[in-house]
Specification:
heterodimer; A: mainly alpha; 2 domains; 12 helices; B: mainly alpha; MetI-like fold; 79% helix
Chain lengths: 309, 281
Protein backbone atom coordinates (compact mmCIF):
# COMPACT_ATOMS: atom_id res chain seq x y z
CA UNK A 1 0.00 0.00 0.00
CA UNK A 2 1.36 3.44 -0.85
CA UNK A 3 1.44 6.48 1.41
CA UNK A 4 -1.70 7.91 -0.14
CA UNK A 5 -3.64 4.82 0.86
CA UNK A 6 -2.35 4.82 4.42
CA UNK A 7 -3.70 8.22 5.44
CA UNK A 8 -7.44 7.39 5.05
CA UNK A 9 -6.88 4.07 6.82
CA UNK A 10 -5.14 5.86 9.68
CA UNK A 11 -8.00 8.33 9.96
CA UNK A 12 -10.47 5.45 10.26
CA UNK A 13 -8.31 3.84 12.95
CA UNK A 14 -8.13 7.16 14.82
CA UNK A 15 -11.94 7.47 14.63
CA UNK A 16 -12.28 3.99 16.13
CA UNK A 17 -9.95 4.91 18.99
CA UNK A 18 -11.80 8.18 19.63
CA UNK A 19 -15.12 6.30 19.87
CA UNK A 20 -13.50 3.76 22.19
CA UNK A 21 -12.03 6.49 24.42
CA UNK A 22 -15.35 8.32 24.58
CA UNK A 23 -17.21 5.12 25.40
CA UNK A 24 -15.04 4.51 28.45
CA UNK A 25 -16.84 7.28 30.44
CA UNK A 26 -20.44 5.98 30.23
CA UNK A 27 -19.36 2.33 30.40
CA UNK A 28 -17.41 2.77 33.63
CA UNK A 29 -19.45 5.57 35.24
CA UNK A 30 -21.39 3.36 37.66
CA UNK A 31 -18.38 1.40 38.87
CA UNK A 32 -16.36 4.59 39.24
CA UNK A 33 -19.12 6.33 41.18
CA UNK A 34 -19.29 3.41 43.60
CA UNK A 35 -15.54 3.48 44.04
CA UNK A 36 -15.43 7.27 44.46
CA UNK A 37 -18.12 7.12 47.14
CA UNK A 38 -16.09 4.59 49.09
CA UNK A 39 -13.14 6.94 48.82
CA UNK A 40 -15.14 9.72 50.45
CA UNK A 41 -16.49 11.69 47.49
CA UNK A 42 -20.08 12.82 47.58
CA UNK A 43 -22.09 11.50 44.67
CA UNK A 44 -25.45 12.69 43.38
CA UNK A 45 -27.67 10.65 43.80
CA UNK A 46 -26.17 9.14 46.90
CA UNK A 47 -27.63 5.62 47.04
CA UNK A 48 -25.99 3.17 44.59
CA UNK A 49 -29.41 1.78 43.77
CA UNK A 50 -30.69 5.17 42.65
CA UNK A 51 -27.67 5.55 40.43
CA UNK A 52 -28.57 2.38 38.56
CA UNK A 53 -31.59 4.18 37.14
CA UNK A 54 -29.42 6.70 35.32
CA UNK A 55 -27.52 6.10 32.13
CA UNK A 56 -23.76 6.13 32.47
CA UNK A 57 -23.53 9.38 30.55
CA UNK A 58 -26.05 11.26 32.72
CA UNK A 59 -24.27 10.03 35.81
CA UNK A 60 -20.97 11.34 34.52
CA UNK A 61 -22.48 14.75 33.75
CA UNK A 62 -24.03 14.98 37.23
CA UNK A 63 -20.71 14.08 38.83
CA UNK A 64 -18.05 15.64 36.61
CA UNK A 65 -15.29 14.75 39.10
CA UNK A 66 -15.56 11.05 38.22
CA UNK A 67 -14.89 11.56 34.51
CA UNK A 68 -11.13 11.40 34.80
CA UNK A 69 -11.40 8.54 37.27
CA UNK A 70 -13.23 6.35 34.74
CA UNK A 71 -9.93 6.06 32.87
CA UNK A 72 -7.92 4.73 35.79
CA UNK A 73 -10.29 2.16 37.28
CA UNK A 74 -8.52 -1.01 38.39
CA UNK A 75 -11.17 -3.43 37.13
CA UNK A 76 -13.07 -1.48 34.50
CA UNK A 77 -15.92 -2.77 32.38
CA UNK A 78 -14.25 -1.13 29.42
CA UNK A 79 -10.54 -0.42 29.87
CA UNK A 80 -9.23 2.69 28.20
CA UNK A 81 -6.76 2.29 25.32
CA UNK A 82 -3.80 3.40 27.43
CA UNK A 83 -4.61 0.83 30.14
CA UNK A 84 -4.59 -1.96 27.57
CA UNK A 85 -1.39 -0.58 26.07
CA UNK A 86 0.30 -0.53 29.49
CA UNK A 87 -0.85 -4.06 30.29
CA UNK A 88 0.42 -5.28 26.93
CA UNK A 89 3.72 -3.48 27.34
CA UNK A 90 4.22 -4.99 30.78
CA UNK A 91 3.30 -8.53 29.79
CA UNK A 92 5.29 -8.48 26.56
CA UNK A 93 8.46 -6.54 27.36
CA UNK A 94 9.01 -6.60 31.11
CA UNK A 95 8.45 -10.31 31.75
CA UNK A 96 10.81 -13.06 30.69
CA UNK A 97 9.36 -14.80 27.59
CA UNK A 98 9.40 -18.13 29.41
CA UNK A 99 7.36 -16.86 32.36
CA UNK A 100 3.70 -17.82 32.67
CA UNK A 101 2.83 -14.16 33.08
CA UNK A 102 4.40 -13.19 29.79
CA UNK A 103 2.09 -12.72 26.85
CA UNK A 104 4.90 -13.83 24.54
CA UNK A 105 4.85 -17.24 26.20
CA UNK A 106 1.09 -17.59 25.65
CA UNK A 107 1.41 -16.28 22.11
CA UNK A 108 3.99 -18.95 21.35
CA UNK A 109 1.76 -21.71 22.77
CA UNK A 110 -1.11 -20.67 20.51
CA UNK A 111 1.09 -19.82 17.56
CA UNK A 112 2.92 -23.17 17.52
CA UNK A 113 -0.41 -25.04 17.44
CA UNK A 114 -1.68 -22.69 14.73
CA UNK A 115 1.36 -23.09 12.51
CA UNK A 116 1.55 -26.86 12.86
CA UNK A 117 -2.16 -27.14 12.06
CA UNK A 118 -1.87 -24.70 9.19
CA UNK A 119 0.95 -26.68 7.59
CA UNK A 120 -0.94 -29.97 7.98
CA UNK A 121 -4.21 -28.49 6.71
CA UNK A 122 -2.62 -26.72 3.76
CA UNK A 123 -0.61 -29.75 2.66
CA UNK A 124 -3.62 -32.06 2.81
CA UNK A 125 -5.77 -29.41 1.14
CA UNK A 126 -3.40 -29.02 -1.81
CA UNK A 127 -3.08 -32.80 -2.21
CA UNK A 128 -6.86 -33.24 -2.20
CA UNK A 129 -7.24 -30.39 -4.68
CA UNK A 130 -4.79 -32.06 -7.06
CA UNK A 131 -6.75 -35.29 -6.69
CA UNK A 132 -10.01 -33.51 -7.40
CA UNK A 133 -8.65 -31.80 -10.50
CA UNK A 134 -7.20 -35.00 -11.97
CA UNK A 135 -9.85 -37.51 -10.93
CA UNK A 136 -13.37 -37.01 -12.12
CA UNK A 137 -14.92 -39.43 -9.62
CA UNK A 138 -13.24 -37.62 -6.76
CA UNK A 139 -14.36 -34.29 -8.14
CA UNK A 140 -17.97 -35.36 -8.35
CA UNK A 141 -18.00 -37.10 -4.95
CA UNK A 142 -15.91 -34.84 -2.73
CA UNK A 143 -16.26 -31.34 -4.16
CA UNK A 144 -19.93 -30.83 -3.21
CA UNK A 145 -19.06 -31.84 0.36
CA UNK A 146 -16.07 -29.52 0.48
CA UNK A 147 -18.31 -26.64 -0.57
CA UNK A 148 -21.15 -27.59 1.78
CA UNK A 149 -18.74 -27.93 4.67
CA UNK A 150 -17.93 -24.23 4.39
CA UNK A 151 -21.49 -23.39 5.34
CA UNK A 152 -21.26 -25.51 8.49
CA UNK A 153 -19.95 -24.16 11.80
CA UNK A 154 -17.18 -26.76 11.99
CA UNK A 155 -15.76 -25.00 15.02
CA UNK A 156 -18.54 -26.62 17.08
CA UNK A 157 -16.58 -29.86 16.77
CA UNK A 158 -13.61 -28.40 18.65
CA UNK A 159 -14.47 -29.46 22.23
CA UNK A 160 -15.22 -32.98 21.09
CA UNK A 161 -12.01 -33.39 19.12
CA UNK A 162 -10.02 -32.28 22.17
CA UNK A 163 -11.81 -34.69 24.50
CA UNK A 164 -11.68 -37.67 22.12
CA UNK A 165 -7.98 -37.23 21.49
CA UNK A 166 -7.47 -36.76 25.21
CA UNK A 167 -9.29 -40.05 25.84
CA UNK A 168 -6.92 -41.94 23.57
CA UNK A 169 -3.94 -40.29 25.17
CA UNK A 170 -3.08 -37.45 22.80
CA UNK A 171 -2.73 -34.14 24.57
CA UNK A 172 -1.01 -30.81 24.30
CA UNK A 173 -0.16 -29.35 20.93
CA UNK A 174 -1.64 -31.90 18.56
CA UNK A 175 -5.39 -31.71 19.34
CA UNK A 176 -5.39 -27.94 18.86
CA UNK A 177 -3.39 -28.34 15.66
CA UNK A 178 -5.93 -30.80 14.33
CA UNK A 179 -8.70 -28.25 14.81
CA UNK A 180 -6.53 -25.62 13.12
CA UNK A 181 -5.73 -28.01 10.29
CA UNK A 182 -9.39 -28.86 9.86
CA UNK A 183 -10.39 -25.20 9.64
CA UNK A 184 -7.66 -24.21 7.19
CA UNK A 185 -8.17 -27.34 5.09
CA UNK A 186 -11.41 -26.51 3.26
CA UNK A 187 -10.65 -22.96 2.12
CA UNK A 188 -7.39 -24.28 0.64
CA UNK A 189 -9.15 -27.15 -1.16
CA UNK A 190 -11.77 -24.88 -2.70
CA UNK A 191 -9.24 -22.18 -3.66
CA UNK A 192 -6.71 -24.60 -5.09
CA UNK A 193 -9.29 -26.42 -7.20
CA UNK A 194 -10.30 -23.09 -8.67
CA UNK A 195 -6.65 -22.16 -9.21
CA UNK A 196 -5.58 -25.43 -10.80
CA UNK A 197 -8.52 -25.11 -13.18
CA UNK A 198 -7.82 -21.47 -14.02
CA UNK A 199 -5.70 -22.09 -17.17
CA UNK A 200 -8.08 -21.79 -20.08
CA UNK A 201 -8.50 -24.11 -23.05
CA UNK A 202 -6.16 -22.07 -25.21
CA UNK A 203 -3.26 -22.43 -22.76
CA UNK A 204 -3.87 -26.16 -22.30
CA UNK A 205 -3.99 -26.57 -26.07
CA UNK A 206 -0.73 -24.72 -26.46
CA UNK A 207 0.95 -27.15 -24.06
CA UNK A 208 -0.50 -30.01 -26.07
CA UNK A 209 1.03 -28.62 -29.25
CA UNK A 210 4.36 -28.62 -27.41
CA UNK A 211 3.57 -32.30 -26.76
CA UNK A 212 3.87 -31.72 -23.02
CA UNK A 213 2.78 -34.63 -20.87
CA UNK A 214 0.42 -34.41 -17.91
CA UNK A 215 3.29 -34.01 -15.49
CA UNK A 216 4.75 -31.05 -17.31
CA UNK A 217 1.30 -29.60 -17.71
CA UNK A 218 0.93 -29.67 -13.95
CA UNK A 219 4.33 -28.23 -12.98
CA UNK A 220 4.66 -25.68 -15.75
CA UNK A 221 1.12 -24.45 -16.22
CA UNK A 222 -1.45 -25.48 -13.66
CA UNK A 223 0.61 -25.04 -10.51
CA UNK A 224 2.03 -21.60 -11.41
CA UNK A 225 -1.40 -20.46 -12.57
CA UNK A 226 -2.92 -21.45 -9.24
CA UNK A 227 -0.59 -19.31 -7.11
CA UNK A 228 -2.81 -16.21 -6.78
CA UNK A 229 -5.68 -18.46 -5.69
CA UNK A 230 -3.45 -20.37 -3.31
CA UNK A 231 -2.30 -17.21 -1.53
CA UNK A 232 -5.84 -15.89 -1.25
CA UNK A 233 -6.88 -19.15 0.43
CA UNK A 234 -3.78 -19.26 2.60
CA UNK A 235 -4.66 -15.87 4.07
CA UNK A 236 -8.17 -17.06 4.90
CA UNK A 237 -6.74 -20.35 6.16
CA UNK A 238 -4.20 -18.86 8.55
CA UNK A 239 -6.71 -16.65 10.32
CA UNK A 240 -9.12 -19.60 10.51
CA UNK A 241 -6.31 -21.72 11.94
CA UNK A 242 -5.60 -19.14 14.63
CA UNK A 243 -9.27 -18.97 15.62
CA UNK A 244 -9.28 -22.77 15.73
CA UNK A 245 -6.30 -22.91 18.06
CA UNK A 246 -7.80 -20.27 20.36
CA UNK A 247 -11.17 -22.00 20.53
CA UNK A 248 -9.35 -25.31 21.03
CA UNK A 249 -7.95 -23.88 24.25
CA UNK A 250 -11.33 -22.94 25.66
CA UNK A 251 -13.17 -26.11 26.64
CA UNK A 252 -10.34 -28.13 28.08
CA UNK A 253 -9.16 -25.81 30.78
CA UNK A 254 -5.87 -25.35 28.96
CA UNK A 255 -3.39 -23.45 31.10
CA UNK A 256 -1.56 -21.57 28.40
CA UNK A 257 -2.36 -19.79 25.19
CA UNK A 258 -4.53 -16.85 24.19
CA UNK A 259 -7.76 -18.79 24.67
CA UNK A 260 -6.73 -19.81 28.18
CA UNK A 261 -5.82 -16.20 29.02
CA UNK A 262 -9.20 -14.96 27.84
CA UNK A 263 -10.93 -17.55 30.00
CA UNK A 264 -8.74 -16.84 33.03
CA UNK A 265 -9.33 -13.10 32.79
CA UNK A 266 -13.04 -13.77 32.47
CA UNK A 267 -13.30 -16.12 35.43
CA UNK A 268 -10.99 -14.32 37.86
CA UNK A 269 -12.34 -10.85 37.16
CA UNK A 270 -9.21 -9.50 35.53
CA UNK A 271 -10.51 -7.70 32.45
CA UNK A 272 -7.02 -6.49 31.50
CA UNK A 273 -5.85 -10.06 31.02
CA UNK A 274 -8.74 -10.75 28.64
CA UNK A 275 -8.19 -7.54 26.72
CA UNK A 276 -4.46 -8.05 26.45
CA UNK A 277 -5.01 -11.59 25.17
CA UNK A 278 -7.58 -10.32 22.69
CA UNK A 279 -5.22 -7.69 21.31
CA UNK A 280 -2.35 -10.14 21.39
CA UNK A 281 -4.40 -12.53 19.26
CA UNK A 282 -5.39 -9.71 16.91
CA UNK A 283 -1.78 -8.59 16.48
CA UNK A 284 -0.68 -12.19 15.89
CA UNK A 285 -3.36 -12.65 13.24
CA UNK A 286 -2.39 -9.39 11.59
CA UNK A 287 1.30 -10.34 11.55
CA UNK A 288 0.56 -13.78 10.07
CA UNK A 289 -1.59 -12.29 7.31
CA UNK A 290 1.00 -9.56 6.69
CA UNK A 291 3.79 -12.13 6.35
CA UNK A 292 1.72 -14.13 3.88
CA UNK A 293 0.88 -10.97 1.91
CA UNK A 294 4.56 -10.12 1.76
CA UNK A 295 5.48 -13.59 0.47
CA UNK A 296 2.56 -13.36 -1.94
CA UNK A 297 3.75 -10.06 -3.35
CA UNK A 298 7.33 -11.26 -3.72
CA UNK A 299 6.33 -14.55 -5.32
CA UNK A 300 3.81 -13.09 -7.73
CA UNK A 301 6.18 -10.28 -8.69
CA UNK A 302 8.91 -12.80 -9.51
CA UNK A 303 6.42 -14.82 -11.52
CA UNK A 304 5.38 -11.71 -13.42
CA UNK A 305 1.87 -11.70 -11.98
CA UNK A 306 2.38 -8.80 -9.61
CA UNK A 307 0.12 -6.47 -11.50
CA UNK A 308 -2.91 -8.74 -11.34
CA UNK A 309 -2.68 -9.39 -7.61
CA UNK B 1 -13.00 -59.00 8.98
CA UNK B 2 -14.36 -55.55 9.71
CA UNK B 3 -11.67 -54.02 7.56
CA UNK B 4 -12.53 -56.31 4.66
CA UNK B 5 -16.22 -55.37 4.84
CA UNK B 6 -15.33 -51.69 5.11
CA UNK B 7 -13.00 -51.96 2.13
CA UNK B 8 -15.60 -53.73 0.05
CA UNK B 9 -18.22 -51.09 0.92
CA UNK B 10 -15.72 -48.44 -0.12
CA UNK B 11 -14.89 -50.27 -3.34
CA UNK B 12 -18.58 -50.70 -4.22
CA UNK B 13 -19.42 -47.05 -3.52
CA UNK B 14 -16.39 -45.86 -5.44
CA UNK B 15 -17.10 -48.16 -8.36
CA UNK B 16 -20.72 -46.94 -8.67
CA UNK B 17 -19.55 -43.32 -8.48
CA UNK B 18 -16.79 -43.92 -11.01
CA UNK B 19 -19.35 -45.40 -13.39
CA UNK B 20 -21.70 -42.48 -12.85
CA UNK B 21 -19.02 -39.79 -13.02
CA UNK B 22 -17.43 -41.10 -16.21
CA UNK B 23 -20.73 -42.10 -17.78
CA UNK B 24 -22.48 -40.19 -20.54
CA UNK B 25 -24.99 -38.48 -18.21
CA UNK B 26 -22.46 -37.31 -15.64
CA UNK B 27 -23.20 -33.60 -15.95
CA UNK B 28 -26.95 -33.89 -15.58
CA UNK B 29 -28.52 -32.45 -12.44
CA UNK B 30 -29.70 -35.71 -10.92
CA UNK B 31 -26.40 -37.50 -11.34
CA UNK B 32 -24.49 -34.53 -9.94
CA UNK B 33 -26.73 -34.80 -6.90
CA UNK B 34 -26.64 -38.58 -6.56
CA UNK B 35 -22.86 -38.95 -6.63
CA UNK B 36 -22.09 -36.93 -3.48
CA UNK B 37 -25.03 -38.60 -1.72
CA UNK B 38 -23.61 -42.05 -2.51
CA UNK B 39 -20.22 -40.85 -1.34
CA UNK B 40 -21.66 -39.59 1.94
CA UNK B 41 -23.67 -42.78 2.45
CA UNK B 42 -20.53 -44.86 1.82
CA UNK B 43 -18.61 -42.99 4.50
CA UNK B 44 -21.45 -43.36 7.01
CA UNK B 45 -21.77 -47.07 6.24
CA UNK B 46 -18.02 -47.60 6.73
CA UNK B 47 -18.16 -45.60 9.96
CA UNK B 48 -21.02 -47.78 11.22
CA UNK B 49 -19.33 -51.04 10.27
CA UNK B 50 -15.94 -50.15 11.71
CA UNK B 51 -17.29 -48.78 14.98
CA UNK B 52 -19.64 -51.69 15.70
CA UNK B 53 -17.42 -54.52 14.48
CA UNK B 54 -14.19 -53.29 16.02
CA UNK B 55 -16.04 -52.53 19.26
CA UNK B 56 -14.86 -48.93 19.46
CA UNK B 57 -16.10 -47.37 22.66
CA UNK B 58 -19.02 -44.95 22.15
CA UNK B 59 -17.08 -42.54 24.36
CA UNK B 60 -14.64 -42.10 21.52
CA UNK B 61 -16.80 -42.43 18.44
CA UNK B 62 -20.49 -43.37 18.60
CA UNK B 63 -21.89 -45.23 15.56
CA UNK B 64 -24.16 -43.22 13.24
CA UNK B 65 -27.15 -45.37 14.23
CA UNK B 66 -26.98 -44.35 17.87
CA UNK B 67 -26.57 -40.70 16.85
CA UNK B 68 -29.70 -41.01 14.75
CA UNK B 69 -31.61 -42.62 17.65
CA UNK B 70 -30.42 -39.92 20.02
CA UNK B 71 -31.40 -37.24 17.53
CA UNK B 72 -34.90 -38.66 17.19
CA UNK B 73 -35.35 -39.02 20.95
CA UNK B 74 -34.06 -35.60 21.90
CA UNK B 75 -35.89 -33.48 19.37
CA UNK B 76 -37.54 -31.26 22.05
CA UNK B 77 -34.18 -30.44 23.64
CA UNK B 78 -32.52 -29.98 20.27
CA UNK B 79 -35.30 -27.65 19.21
CA UNK B 80 -34.99 -25.58 22.39
CA UNK B 81 -31.23 -25.29 21.81
CA UNK B 82 -31.82 -24.38 18.18
CA UNK B 83 -34.27 -21.67 19.20
CA UNK B 84 -31.93 -20.24 21.82
CA UNK B 85 -28.73 -20.26 19.77
CA UNK B 86 -29.79 -19.92 16.16
CA UNK B 87 -33.10 -18.08 16.20
CA UNK B 88 -32.41 -15.75 19.13
CA UNK B 89 -28.62 -15.42 19.23
CA UNK B 90 -27.39 -15.84 15.68
CA UNK B 91 -30.37 -14.37 13.79
CA UNK B 92 -30.74 -11.25 15.93
CA UNK B 93 -27.02 -10.59 15.76
CA UNK B 94 -26.95 -11.23 12.02
CA UNK B 95 -29.77 -8.78 11.32
CA UNK B 96 -28.37 -6.10 13.64
CA UNK B 97 -24.84 -6.49 12.25
CA UNK B 98 -26.17 -6.41 8.70
CA UNK B 99 -28.20 -3.22 9.23
CA UNK B 100 -25.27 -1.55 11.00
CA UNK B 101 -22.91 -2.55 8.19
CA UNK B 102 -25.26 -1.22 5.50
CA UNK B 103 -25.74 2.03 7.41
CA UNK B 104 -22.02 2.61 7.93
CA UNK B 105 -21.32 1.68 4.31
CA UNK B 106 -23.87 4.21 3.05
CA UNK B 107 -22.50 6.92 5.35
CA UNK B 108 -18.90 6.20 4.38
CA UNK B 109 -19.92 6.16 0.75
CA UNK B 110 -20.69 9.89 0.84
CA UNK B 111 -16.98 10.53 1.27
CA UNK B 112 -14.32 9.20 -1.05
CA UNK B 113 -11.77 9.60 1.73
CA UNK B 114 -13.66 7.48 4.27
CA UNK B 115 -14.32 4.78 1.68
CA UNK B 116 -10.61 4.52 1.01
CA UNK B 117 -9.94 4.21 4.72
CA UNK B 118 -12.70 1.75 5.56
CA UNK B 119 -11.82 -0.82 2.89
CA UNK B 120 -8.35 -1.80 4.23
CA UNK B 121 -9.26 -1.37 7.91
CA UNK B 122 -12.46 -3.40 7.51
CA UNK B 123 -10.70 -6.14 5.56
CA UNK B 124 -8.07 -6.23 8.29
CA UNK B 125 -10.65 -6.42 11.09
CA UNK B 126 -12.48 -9.20 9.25
CA UNK B 127 -9.35 -11.38 9.50
CA UNK B 128 -9.02 -10.92 13.26
CA UNK B 129 -10.23 -13.52 15.77
CA UNK B 130 -13.29 -11.49 16.80
CA UNK B 131 -14.70 -14.57 18.56
CA UNK B 132 -12.33 -13.57 21.37
CA UNK B 133 -14.60 -10.66 22.27
CA UNK B 134 -17.15 -13.21 23.52
CA UNK B 135 -16.06 -13.14 27.21
CA UNK B 136 -16.25 -9.34 27.21
CA UNK B 137 -19.76 -9.26 25.78
CA UNK B 138 -20.91 -11.99 28.14
CA UNK B 139 -19.68 -9.83 31.02
CA UNK B 140 -21.42 -6.72 29.70
CA UNK B 141 -24.74 -8.11 28.56
CA UNK B 142 -25.24 -11.16 30.77
CA UNK B 143 -25.17 -14.76 29.74
CA UNK B 144 -28.47 -14.91 27.84
CA UNK B 145 -28.81 -14.58 24.08
CA UNK B 146 -28.24 -10.80 23.99
CA UNK B 147 -24.50 -11.22 24.52
CA UNK B 148 -24.36 -13.87 21.78
CA UNK B 149 -26.23 -11.58 19.42
CA UNK B 150 -23.67 -8.86 20.15
CA UNK B 151 -20.73 -11.16 19.36
CA UNK B 152 -22.44 -12.27 16.16
CA UNK B 153 -23.23 -8.67 15.24
CA UNK B 154 -19.58 -7.63 15.51
CA UNK B 155 -18.38 -10.73 13.66
CA UNK B 156 -20.69 -10.31 10.67
CA UNK B 157 -20.28 -6.52 10.56
CA UNK B 158 -16.88 -6.33 8.88
CA UNK B 159 -17.27 -8.76 5.96
CA UNK B 160 -20.66 -7.24 5.09
CA UNK B 161 -19.28 -3.71 5.43
CA UNK B 162 -16.25 -4.34 3.23
CA UNK B 163 -18.29 -6.05 0.54
CA UNK B 164 -20.99 -3.37 0.54
CA UNK B 165 -18.47 -0.53 0.34
CA UNK B 166 -16.67 -2.33 -2.49
CA UNK B 167 -20.00 -3.02 -4.21
CA UNK B 168 -21.10 0.60 -4.09
CA UNK B 169 -18.02 1.47 -6.14
CA UNK B 170 -18.66 -0.87 -9.07
CA UNK B 171 -21.07 1.19 -11.16
CA UNK B 172 -19.05 2.74 -13.96
CA UNK B 173 -18.53 6.44 -14.64
CA UNK B 174 -20.53 6.07 -17.84
CA UNK B 175 -23.52 4.67 -15.96
CA UNK B 176 -23.37 7.41 -13.35
CA UNK B 177 -23.13 10.03 -16.10
CA UNK B 178 -26.19 8.55 -17.71
CA UNK B 179 -28.11 8.92 -14.43
CA UNK B 180 -26.96 12.54 -14.24
CA UNK B 181 -28.26 13.24 -17.75
CA UNK B 182 -31.59 11.88 -16.53
CA UNK B 183 -31.43 14.58 -13.84
CA UNK B 184 -31.25 11.97 -11.07
CA UNK B 185 -29.86 13.19 -7.78
CA UNK B 186 -28.00 11.22 -5.10
CA UNK B 187 -30.91 9.14 -3.86
CA UNK B 188 -32.40 8.05 -7.21
CA UNK B 189 -28.90 7.18 -8.41
CA UNK B 190 -28.29 5.19 -5.25
CA UNK B 191 -31.59 3.31 -5.34
CA UNK B 192 -31.85 2.70 -9.07
CA UNK B 193 -28.23 2.19 -10.10
CA UNK B 194 -25.63 1.85 -7.38
CA UNK B 195 -27.45 -0.36 -4.87
CA UNK B 196 -28.64 -2.86 -7.50
CA UNK B 197 -25.12 -2.94 -8.94
CA UNK B 198 -23.75 -3.56 -5.44
CA UNK B 199 -26.11 -6.46 -4.71
CA UNK B 200 -23.82 -9.28 -5.92
CA UNK B 201 -21.08 -7.98 -3.61
CA UNK B 202 -23.47 -7.48 -0.70
CA UNK B 203 -24.75 -11.03 -1.03
CA UNK B 204 -21.20 -12.29 -1.13
CA UNK B 205 -20.65 -10.66 2.26
CA UNK B 206 -23.99 -11.92 3.57
CA UNK B 207 -23.13 -15.48 2.56
CA UNK B 208 -19.73 -15.36 4.27
CA UNK B 209 -21.47 -13.97 7.34
CA UNK B 210 -23.93 -16.89 7.67
CA UNK B 211 -21.24 -19.30 8.85
CA UNK B 212 -19.64 -16.65 11.03
CA UNK B 213 -22.97 -15.99 12.72
CA UNK B 214 -23.40 -19.63 13.73
CA UNK B 215 -19.79 -19.93 14.86
CA UNK B 216 -20.09 -16.77 16.96
CA UNK B 217 -23.34 -17.83 18.60
CA UNK B 218 -22.09 -21.33 19.44
CA UNK B 219 -18.60 -20.41 20.60
CA UNK B 220 -19.85 -17.48 22.72
CA UNK B 221 -21.87 -19.99 24.73
CA UNK B 222 -18.64 -21.69 25.79
CA UNK B 223 -18.01 -18.53 27.87
CA UNK B 224 -21.25 -18.66 29.79
CA UNK B 225 -24.87 -19.31 28.93
CA UNK B 226 -28.19 -20.22 30.49
CA UNK B 227 -28.78 -23.97 30.67
CA UNK B 228 -30.00 -24.11 27.10
CA UNK B 229 -28.28 -23.55 23.79
CA UNK B 230 -26.18 -25.53 21.33
CA UNK B 231 -22.80 -24.39 22.62
CA UNK B 232 -23.89 -25.07 26.19
CA UNK B 233 -25.19 -28.51 25.25
CA UNK B 234 -22.03 -29.39 23.35
CA UNK B 235 -19.70 -28.40 26.17
CA UNK B 236 -21.75 -30.09 28.92
CA UNK B 237 -22.37 -33.25 26.87
CA UNK B 238 -18.65 -33.50 26.15
CA UNK B 239 -18.13 -33.27 29.91
CA UNK B 240 -20.62 -36.12 30.46
CA UNK B 241 -19.02 -38.12 27.63
CA UNK B 242 -22.43 -38.26 25.96
CA UNK B 243 -20.86 -37.98 22.54
CA UNK B 244 -23.94 -39.12 20.65
CA UNK B 245 -25.67 -35.98 21.95
CA UNK B 246 -22.73 -33.85 20.81
CA UNK B 247 -22.97 -35.39 17.35
CA UNK B 248 -26.73 -34.78 17.30
CA UNK B 249 -26.07 -31.09 18.04
CA UNK B 250 -23.48 -31.02 15.30
CA UNK B 251 -26.03 -32.45 12.88
CA UNK B 252 -28.39 -29.64 13.91
CA UNK B 253 -25.62 -27.08 13.42
CA UNK B 254 -24.80 -28.50 10.00
CA UNK B 255 -28.44 -28.49 8.91
CA UNK B 256 -28.97 -24.98 10.26
CA UNK B 257 -25.80 -23.72 8.58
CA UNK B 258 -26.67 -25.18 5.19
CA UNK B 259 -30.28 -24.02 5.43
CA UNK B 260 -29.26 -20.49 6.41
CA UNK B 261 -26.77 -20.34 3.54
CA UNK B 262 -29.36 -21.82 1.20
CA UNK B 263 -31.94 -19.18 2.14
CA UNK B 264 -29.49 -16.33 1.50
CA UNK B 265 -28.40 -17.94 -1.79
CA UNK B 266 -32.04 -18.29 -2.89
CA UNK B 267 -32.78 -14.64 -2.11
CA UNK B 268 -29.64 -13.74 -4.01
CA UNK B 269 -30.81 -15.71 -7.02
CA UNK B 270 -34.13 -13.89 -6.95
CA UNK B 271 -32.64 -10.44 -6.58
CA UNK B 272 -29.57 -10.65 -8.81
CA UNK B 273 -31.01 -12.78 -11.61
CA UNK B 274 -29.49 -10.34 -14.10
CA UNK B 275 -25.91 -10.93 -13.00
CA UNK B 276 -23.72 -13.13 -15.27
CA UNK B 277 -22.93 -15.52 -12.41
CA UNK B 278 -26.64 -16.29 -11.94
CA UNK B 279 -27.60 -16.88 -15.55
CA UNK B 280 -28.43 -20.41 -16.63
CA UNK B 281 -25.30 -22.07 -17.87
Amino acid sequence: MNIKGIIPALVVVVIIFVIWTAAVIPMNAHLTADQAQRDGFIMTPEAPRDRQEFLGLTLAIKNPEIITMTYTLVRPRLPSPHQVAIEMYETIFTKAPTSRRSLVYHAWVTLSATLLGFVIGTTLGILLAVGIVYNRTMDKSVMPWAITSQTIPILALAPMIIVILGAIGIQGLLPKSIISAYLSFFPVVVGMVKGLRSPDGMQLDLLRTYSANANQGFWKLRLPASMPYLFASLKIGISAALVGAIVGELPTGARAGFGARMLVGDQYGQPMVTWAALFGAAITAALLVAILSFIERRTLARMGMGATA
Amino acid sequence: MALIIALSIWATGWWINAQLANGPQSDSRTISLIIPIIFGATIIAIWQVLVTMLGISPIILPPPSSIAVRFANEIPILWADFEQTILKGAMTGYVVGMIAAFAVALLADRSEFLTKGILPVGAFMAALPIVGTAPIFVKWLGSDWQSKAAVVGVMVFFPILVNTVAGLKVSSMMQRDLMRTYGAGYWPTLLKLRLPAALPFMFNGLKIATTLALIGAIVAEFFGSPTVGMGFRISTSVGQLALDMVWAEIVVAALAGSAFYGIIATIEKRMTFWHPSQREK
